[in-house]
Specification:
With 163 residues, the chain is an all-alpha fold. The chain has helices at residues 2-100, 103-115, 119-128, 131-140, 143-162.
Length: 163
């Protein structure tokens, strides 16, 4: 009987010890899981904050780029307008000069300019001249040059009628 009691007491002690140890391990694992979960939440929150910061920085940069792009466009448009005004002023002065010149002299100058490959410049000037003056100048121009300019005037007239 004593051996039975001893055996039962050993068995109970062992069971209690094992139960206590497994409960202890379970509690340790539970604590470790909580700590790990807390670390993951902290990490996630930190990364979420960094993401929001980076996103805001990128949006600020995009906004600045769009603003700069708009400023560049406005500057470009302004410069083009100024350039057109300058070109208009130069061509109006040029047309005044050629309108006051003798047609024979103008024709000689235009022939020389066309020889040098500046037929478009001559055409631009002719567009600004009075119609009567153009007729007189064409009369004194080299036949080939006069025909080229006549064709250009015809094409120009077609384009303006269409659009």
């Amino acid at each position: 009987m004593l051996s039975k009691i001893f055996f039962i007491s050993c068995f109970c002690t062992t069971l209690l010890f094992c139960a206590q140890e497994s409960t202890s391990d379970f509690i340790k694992q539970k604590i470790e899981i909580r700590e790990l979960k807390k670390e993951l939440n902290d990490f996630y929150n930190k990364k979420e904050t960094e993401y929001k910061q980076r996103k805001k920085e990128l949006q600020d940069i995009l906004t600045k780029i769009e603003k700069d792009k708009e400023e560049i466009k406005n500057t470009r448009d302004s410069n083009l307008k100024i350039l057109q005004d300058i070109k208009g002023e130069v061509s109006s002065k040029t047309s005044k000069i050629y309108n006051n010149m003798k047609p024979k002299v103008s024709a000689q100058i235009f022939d020389k300019m066309i020889e040098e490959g500046n037929i478009q410049d001559v055409f631009d000037i002719i567009l600004k001249l009075k119609e009567k003056k153009v007729t007189l100048i064409l009369k004194f121009l080299n036949v080939n040059n006069a025909s080229q300019l006549t064709l250009m005037l015809k094409e120009y007239a077609k384009k303006n009628i269409k659009g």
